[in-house]
Structure formats: C-alpha cells, structure tokens
Amino acid sequence: MAVEEAELFLKAFGERISKLRKSKNLSYRKLAQRCNVDYSDISKIEKGLIKIQLPTILELAKGLDVHPRDLFDFDFPKN
Amino acid sequence: MAVEEAELFLKAFGERISKLRKSKNLSYRKLAQRCNVDYSDISKIEKGLIKIQLPTILELAKGLDVHPRDLFDFDFPKN
DNA sequence: AATAATGTGGGCTTATTAGCCCACTATTAA
DNA sequence: TTAATAGTGGGCTAATAAGCCCACATTATT
What we know:
By secondary structure, chain A is mainly alpha-helical. The first copy, chain A, has helices at about 1-25, 30-35, 40-45, 55-65.
C-alpha cells in the first residue's frame, strides 16, 4: 500500500522533472551542467528510481529555473 | 555559497512544516501518529537539521493533509 | 502536588542517496 | 562515413536519512 503510493509519487515527480526539462530543450547532460546533479542520476530521478533529498530538489529547481514548489505541480491523490 | 543556500532552503522548509503543524494544533507526537515519521525526527526537520527524502515529504504531506506542493509554499529566491 | 504532555537532543544500525566515473547503444549532425 | 550527442545502466566510496529508542527539562493539565 504505502510502498505503492510512494512509488507512484516518485514516478509522478520524475515525470514532472522530465516535462520541465523537455520544455526547456535540455538534455540530461545540459541540465546537469546547470545544476549540481550528475546527468546519469537525472535519468534515474526521472524514472523514479531514486528518492532524492531536499538539497537535490533545490538543485533541480535551480537548473530548471523554477521555484521548488513547481517541481511538485502534478496531480496526486490526497487520500 | 551553495551550502548556505541549501541551509536556508532547509530552514524555510522546516518553518513551513512548523507553520502547517501548528495551524492544525498538532504536537510532534500527534503528527507522528498521522504519518510514518518519528516525532523526534519531525523536530529535527522543522529545525532544518535533516535533508529528508521524497517519501518522507509525502508522509508529512499526508499527515498534514495537504498536497506535497503545499509544503513548498514559501518565498525563496530563484536566483 | 502529582501526572501527563511537549520539545529537545543524543545515540544506534541499516539502507540509500550523493557524487562520481565508465561503457554501451542509438540517434543526430557534420 | 565519421563524429558528436543522447539515453541508459552498472559500479564505487563516503555521507546521510530512515527508523528507531531513550532521557531530560519544561510546560500544561488534573
């Protein structure tokens, strides 16, 4: 239950990152240059394979030039 | 530089959690009962001492009955 | 006064990210 | 055809959260 929900959340978050990145025409490597996150890790984040921490969230927001809040701008059931 | 910024971010996030928790008249222990986070850890999160991961963010949102996005509803310079 | 609740901080083990690098494949551009 | 770029996945070490528990001081509550 909780496990599935967390996985859905990770996937939704990853898809949001992917959408933002593509909207700015950035490859993994290009986005990685703009923030302090390795390009191969960005791939894993977008696939929902990694449970990143707050500082990494901030880095992604900076690289994508949005407020951290915008990274969570996706539908998700409140239960 | 980046270190300071991350610390400011952690503090702002913690203050946001604190504000939401108090607005619902929840103690650390009561909030902990509503989500899967230890009460002593919530104290540390609100003080910005811990860099929590995505699943913990989800848990806090559930315990506070808000969308994860709302946990990031605070001012923060976009640089 | 006695009890309960609260905030705080320390410690512990295990699991996992952070922060790297490398190699491979497929696609695109020169 | 050749070179460059892109996505993917594996591996490594060190740092850190997760998930606990406990103890103490302070502040309500009864």
